[in-house]
Write a structure and sequence with these properties.
It is built from five helices and twelve strands. It has 226 residues and is α+β, with helices and mostly antiparallel strands. The protein has a single domain, classed as Aminohydrolase, N-terminal nucleophile (Ntn) domain (Glutamine Phosphoribosylpyrophosphate, subunit 1, domain 1, 4-Layer Sandwich). A hairpin with a 4-residue loop joins strand 2 and strand 3.
Length: 226
Amino acid sequence: MCGIVGYIGHREAYPIVLNGLKRLEYRGYDSAGIALYDGEKIKLCKTKGKVADLELKVSKEMATIGNLGIGHTRWATHGEPNDVNSHPHYSNSGDLVLIHNGIIENYVVLKKELINRGYTFSSDTDTEVLVNLIEEIKKNENVKLGKAVQIALNEVVGAYAIAVFDIKKPDEIVVAKLGSPLAIGIGDNEFFIASDASPFIEFTNNAIYLEDDELAIIKLDKDIKI
């Protein structure tokens, strides 16, 4: 079923995201990954195997930086289970990072269109297609990330729960869902994202469960915009 975890706030993101992934292991998966923003760049670690394997692979430096992070446990659908196909996935520019549960049924068509526009792909996943589709729309239509996600998802056929952020706006995460669960935990100027409430229950009991076709813009010092 895969699992999504994310955090943005004043705490170190890594332990929250890692422990959140451990609490979602019951959902089943074959690989895991995490992306952290350190104030300048995104640090990414992905691996085939268990969350424990990911924990061993993460360097001490990466484990102690950043107040923004997303993590994912993947059950392979498009693309075999390996490090490259594991989430999170970058856009071609490296600005956008995305995690995704679900299946995008028309990803082959979308991928061909993006290749024709000059995009390259390192994985076999539908998720890498989605993050580059969002980037293409954001760039060509000169819109903010939330609007680009909304437009991109209107082109997608399938089911999804996603979380994506832009390295140029590290105070914001955009999430959306259709046919796959996604919850937002609300703390004191901090926000948690997860497939269910178990990853953040120790931090807050104030949660929003997104409905199908809902998109939320989560921004520090702001109310959630749905």
